[in-house]
Amino acid sequence: MRNIILSIIGLLLIAIAVFAAIKIVDSKTKIKPRAAKVVKTVFVDTVKNGTVPITIAANGNLTAKRRLELFSEVQGVFRGGSKLFKTGQPYQKGQRLIRIDASEYYASVQSAKSNLYNLITSIMPDLRLDYPEIYEKWQNYLTNFDINKVTPELPEATSDKEKYFITGRNIYSTYYNVKNLEQRLSKYTISAPFSGVLTEALVTEGTLIRQGQKLGEFVDTSVYEIEVAIGIEYSDLLKIGETVELSNLDKSKNYKGIVTRINGSVDQATQTITTFIEVKDPSLKEGMYLEANLNARKAENVIEIDRNLLQQDNRVFVVRDSILDVIDVQPIYFSDKKVILKGVPDGDIILNKPVPGAYAGMLVKVYKDKKNTSATKGNKIISANSNQ
To answer: Which whole-number Å values give the CA distances from 375 to 50, 147, 371, 381, in the listed order?
Structure first.
């Protein structure tokens, strides 16, 4: 009897243990939540086709339109002037840039002038006796002759006799020899042909300058030009005198330029045409990098959107009844950030910003601006001139 009671108690304990274990296991089982369906919110625009000007973007470095490379045609020691011959030194038009010591050569020029004066003086008695009609003009020439000034032009011969007489006395050859020496003497001084700045200085005071040596560079800082390459497809649309918008790299400053020259030949390697744009501004410096926007032509019945909205195979997303769809479009022109499209019907609602993982048939929710209660339900209207 005792054994039976113990067996029954053992079975009860086992049953209770199994039941407790099942309860413990069931209590650790988590109920999996039902996945909520995510609907992405999108920003959209309503299409309105119109006219968009096609702007050709180009860039290049500024160069001075007027540049003077300084070379020496004579030899001598470089002498200093009122201004130091240093890079960045400004000069006004007519101001002396370089003076080379010409004291020795100047003496030879003065000697040649003296010989010419003596030669003309020696023929004056003969002119008074044999050619009294021309004596007066030659006498006036001697009176006005100043050896310290530029040799005046000889009186014009009025007859063959006068010409033969003057030629026979070797006056013409002596005169032109003097003029040749004076011309060479002027090369010992180089003056600024225009107002500008010295951008390169290769010699200093006391330097022995040799014939043909480069001395530096002088540029006009009032007018610059930029050389840009334009695609051949727009060559017939560019015109001389057309206004061009220019800007620096960070877009902090804008300038106005004018197309002044267009190359008549095409670069065979790049199939582009070189165009020169003139620009004036006191803040400009040679070598500055500028970007140019040339108005080539206008596209009709088109829109302009961001390039990242254009999908492969020339398609864009549209929203129809809260579902994404794709339509085929025709790109007209690509810029760095924008693309001009044709073939998008008026009134279609297209994406304004890219949607990650977007696909045709995707369920979306259009963003509504609470401040806007128009018929477009808060959507902006994208027109031909929209920059959205």
So the answer is: 21, 95, 13, 11
| Structural domains in the chain plus CATH codes | 42-52+301-383 (2.40.420.20), 66-101+188-219 (2.40.50.100), 104-186 (no CATH)
Please tell me the pTM assigned to this model: 0.62
CB 80 within 8 A of CB 205: yes
Quick check: 386 pLDDT over 50?
no
Residues 6+ positions from 73 with CB-CB distance below 8 Å: 184, 187, 211, 212
pLDDT in tens, 89-148: 999 999 999 999 999 999 999 999 999 999 999 999 988 888 888 889 999 999 999 988
